């Protein structure tokens, strides 16, 4: 299985992004469909992986003609990209909106014109705006990280727990933080130091070096994003600190290798699949070709696919590493 | 060369050809003539569009998509044209736009708008934008803070304030009257586009045909001469920044209509796009020469480019590289054509 | 010096043509310079003098024509090439860099350096020598040039020309910003140079200077050489003037003004002072009266005018116009009260170089022409054209960018602004700087016309005869103090100079 | 006022006080004196830091954290100081830095570095940066493209190229020799900080003490005068941009060392921070006057501010608003102090 998705609803072939040839009845070439894809700018590793994975997935199918719009963080531009897809009469649209609420109207419009929309990662504000929504579980991610820390430190009431968040103004960051503090609250812990980076290596390094300076004694750190985690680790190494353990987020191959090595402060990471958009492309293809999901009892493609957020630790890392994304 | 320091490093080229310009005709007057290179670049892009994507590219539908997209950045860029012509710079427009959308879409404002009239919502956005602009203007004119720094500070502060007000939540606009009007069409053309056209024409008129415009050019061209000629340079500076803020407020209204949402992330990095459009349009970054027509063309070129890329199946990184090359080509083309006209 | 007429000339330019878009600035110019001579270049404003010397300096490339240097044909492809030949140029428009120090400006482009590292001590002492040679040891080499007055910048320019090893120095109206004593200084330097065999091309609109310093003369008119190699001693001034202008011009000051009425003063200045610049300036100007400020460069005359106008904030004292006290440091208050001001540095203080002439002329009045905030450009053009004609602006096209006008014509455009404005009190700082004989007479007539219509004029000029000729009363300023006040009838040029010297020494 | 058109709108304030300035000493020379306001702002921030976070704030550890953080942006800002002093602007430094880190950390380069010497990796980063800078310079000097546009195009293109080369993946640096050297300490001070100090001193020397520096100021202050004085303005412009590119390359090396990774997202929006530091430091955006000392102080102020915020666990929105206010205050403070010194 590719990342994390096997416990959830997902067709078989889609799991295995790492393998070359897809298999299964649904993967047999059908009529060629044009799929419009729009996502934010690849200004951080995970987002870069998203776009790359989507493109690779489309290349895998000769019956997909993927129309990729330039990545943008300007919702105004993103709206016109979707408008243009509608104009061009594409067969399906996959959108990872920069801001879900802001793209709801135009997505609704596409749906009304009969073009199925697959909403990835950041949710629209109304369900009618998308035929399928593929979501990571941000709140669940926070919870998983929190629960892991609870497990390790639950008996230490005065444990110092730090959090290195991503971009604070994004709802997904807020969800993650909420899940994290909710889970911690259940074992009477709380976040004592919190900084936000910006999902970049550089931002992670800066935030972490300041954080380490501000908190001389830490027991655990949760870092929301493994891409910025490269910078975080660099800062930790530089400060020569190892009195704590670190839980990552997103599940990049880099981090998993750290976990595998066993001598790193990184003990675990919570997966947030970067293949969501690739899944979205697949689903869009099915919708456009009016195929159904072969792996579910229900014949139709489901409304909502929420990907699971498992925790990767030294115990199960070999299971996840082969398919993790190189951020 | 005292007037072009900001582009000073590129002066030799200028000296060689531009300052020797013979037709003493003021350049912003020539409107399309001066912008011939830009028009050609635009036409070239359209031709490429038609070749690669078929006639649909210049179909009415697609043109409207382009224009609707251009509307927000266009309105903002027109305000920025004034500031740059007056010799300043405004880095804050993007985040002021964000703040205005947030303020206008708070529950309080929306409730009031529903109780009274949707115009309240519009007025709120415009007021927030204008006030931010005026604050910039005061800092620059009376505080003696260079405009780059003053508006940079405003950029940071307005974004922060927007986050605080919205609690970083995206606020949905539900004032139906507002949505009906601004998301609608008038004579087959989206209201958004009408607003853009009106602001552009008003901006052109203000800059090219009124005493206000003349003062703006004088203040930007040689502030000392303007002052000695009795122009109240400081007060004028405040107004110019006010206009830029007002335009950001109008842009916020359009953004609210287009996205039906207000959020602090609206307008992120918009300032760079706006300044780029203004400068490509032929307004001197050093001040003293401004062209609204050029700005509009600059905005359209960027919007068409965007549209063109979406049509073509290019990898988005390749798109970025291509965009860089095209920007340079467009500018060189423009230089060629405007200097060819002169000699 | 230049008697050796048969020897190879140092420089010979033949048939030089230079066209700008819309203007044929040079239309076949011949010029011959012999080693060690002082060659004067004469011509009306816009005749092509500056363009010619820019061709010579490699700043412009000629379209046609031949240049021979010591008999060898050369192309001067860049300013560097000219400097390498040994041609140094002092340009008409001050070509200094404000942000650099005096010494750095002097050695700009040929810095005294060891392996790229500036040798500051050496360049300062070398700069000090050069400045001393020019009689200006008071200018410190480390001073930032931006803080110098126009005259100071001119001195720096001169020092720069001298700092190179040169065979030919071109001086484009160097005396325009200098006062008589300065000019004397300059001449001393020129004589030393020509004694050393260095040739000098000297451009000036002041005939008396030509007489004093020149050996031979070339006259340009409309981009063509109309006379060349004239011997200064043998050519009478009226002949030169008619060669230049094609007509006879009488340069008189138009006699005394009609004299002040007995009315209340239009302008009343009491105990005006700006700390550290000047103090205790009191003067009154009545309608129809011309009051002159005489003094050496750097005496603070420009500052006095700027302060009256509100462009600088006075530290004490009052300015009243028709009895109304002006707010300190407020230009708009002054303009509202009816004061006009033509500043001395037209480029930095007066003109929007890339804007058309007419808009420069109406810079202070466009709002008056406008109706309801709407510009009335045709009315502006009309008014501007009228004044341009009155001042004989060349070319008379008011639509071209001011940048493309010759120096003297830019000055006329500045003056025209305040003629269109029509103010009660007019402050003129060096109004005839760089203006040719013909236009100068024009300006004198204008000043008369203004006084007759009741304008009160306050005039600063470095040409003492001009101040004495035009003004009814004169204040002599030295080092920021008024050292003498009286009517012009009671004083002559020598007396003024004496007063100035005493004041400066005191 | 011929020297400040880009800040023209704010001219009146300047005119009132600066042209009457008594001290004729060139300002870039005054070093610390001129930057008194900045030094005071820095001290004030440190005092606030000590008050709110205890003495640890000025402890050696924390100082080193601040300095290491300042190193990357500091090196880049020094390059940008040259471009701005020469009257241009460089928007591309951030993405050129990103491209350099990517290129230097590709498998090919790293393998070669391991086989030969880690210096290969460093050379690669510097070369990429310098070449990008030179391309900018050529476009500006010989292509006649204004620097804002030329470097904006480079910004977009270099970022795209970096994404293509890296396939949008973060490339971990594993050349041990490189990491050992650049992540190590020398005499108790991190090598990163040493590099910053060396570049700063070299930059100061180059700008203030050499022919090259004088010419840079001349080209920025009055390009026409520079040309007439026989300076090859175009060629000089190319070099100045080359320096900026080289500094971005040095920044890339530091970034690689600091993060042990190369990625196309490195340096995102760094250009804005760099320009802000330069302008706060007193370099005229219009060209003709530059201060390396000021730039270094500007960089330090921003770094201390960042550190201060983190130490105090401030919400990032509140940070933003505060930051905006502090920027304006610092500039006004500086104006106060520098004009007080003059009168
Ligand atoms: N860059 C230019 N573009 C167009 N025309 C120009 C330009 N420079 C000069 N001219 C024109 O060339 C002619 C000669 O100008 P020039 O400056 O050589 O006159 P001049 O003899 O030096 O006059 P003055 O005594 O006023 O300095 C003028 O008509 C002027 O308008
Ligand atoms: N920006 C400045 N900063 C410092 N000192 C200045 C500045 N401008 C002028 N000064 C000084 O003020 C004094 C008077 O200046 P200025 O040369 O303008 O007098 P002036 O009598 O008007 O001379 P001119 O004949 O050139 O008009 C001089 O000592 C000059 O150096
Ligand atoms: Mg001339
Ligand atoms: Mg003076």
Task: Describe the structure in brief.
Chain A is 41% helix and 17% strand. Chain A has eleven helices and twelve strands.
Layout of SSEs?
The complex is a heterotetramer, with one copy of chain A (327 residues), two copies of chain B (343 residues) and one copy of chain C (506 residues).
Chain A: H1 12-15, E1 33-38, H2 45-60, E2 64-68, H3 75-88, E3 92-95, H4 100-112, E4 117-120, E5 132-135, H5 138-153, E6 161-165, H6 171-186, E7 191-196, H7 201-214, E8 220-223, H8 226-239, E9 245-250, H9 253-261, E10 266-271, H10 276-288, E11 304-306, E12 311-313, H11 317-320
Parallel strand pairs in A: 1-2, 1-3, 3-4, 4-5, 5-11, 6-7, 6-8, 8-9, 9-10
Antiparallel strand pairs in A: 10-12
Chain B: H1 11-17, H2 36-53, H3 60-85, H4 93-104, H5 107-115, H6 119-141, H7 147-166, E1 171-172, H8 176-182, E2 185-186, E3 189-190, H9 191-209, H10 211-221, H11 223-228, H12 233-259, E4 261-262, H13 270-280, H14 292-311, H15 316-342
Helix pairs in contact in B: 2-14, 2-15, 3-9, 3-10, 3-12, 3-13, 3-14, 4-6, 4-7, 4-12, 5-6, 6-7, 6-12, 9-10, 10-12, 13-14
Chain C: E1 11-20, E2 23-33, E3 38-43, H1 49-56, E4 64-69, E5 72-73, H2 79-85, E6 87-90, H3 102-106, E7 113-114, E8 117-118, H4 120-133, H5 150-163, E9 168-172, H6 180-195, E10 199-203, H7 207-213, E11 216-221, E12 224-231, H8 237-245, E13 267-274, E14 278-285, E15 290-295, H9 301-309, E16 316-321, E17 324-325, H10 331-337, E18 339-342, H11 346-350, H12 357-361, H13 366-369, H14 377-390, H15 407-421, E19 425-429, H16 437-452, E20 456-460, H17 464-470, E21 473-478, E22 481-487, H18 493-505
Parallel strand pairs in C: 3-10, 3-11, 6-9, 9-10, 15-20, 15-21, 18-19, 19-20
Antiparallel strand pairs in C: 1-2, 1-4, 4-5, 7-8, 11-12, 13-14, 13-16, 16-17, 21-22
Helix pairs in contact in C: 14-15
Bound molecules: adenosine-5'-triphosphate (2 copies) and magnesium ion (2 copies).
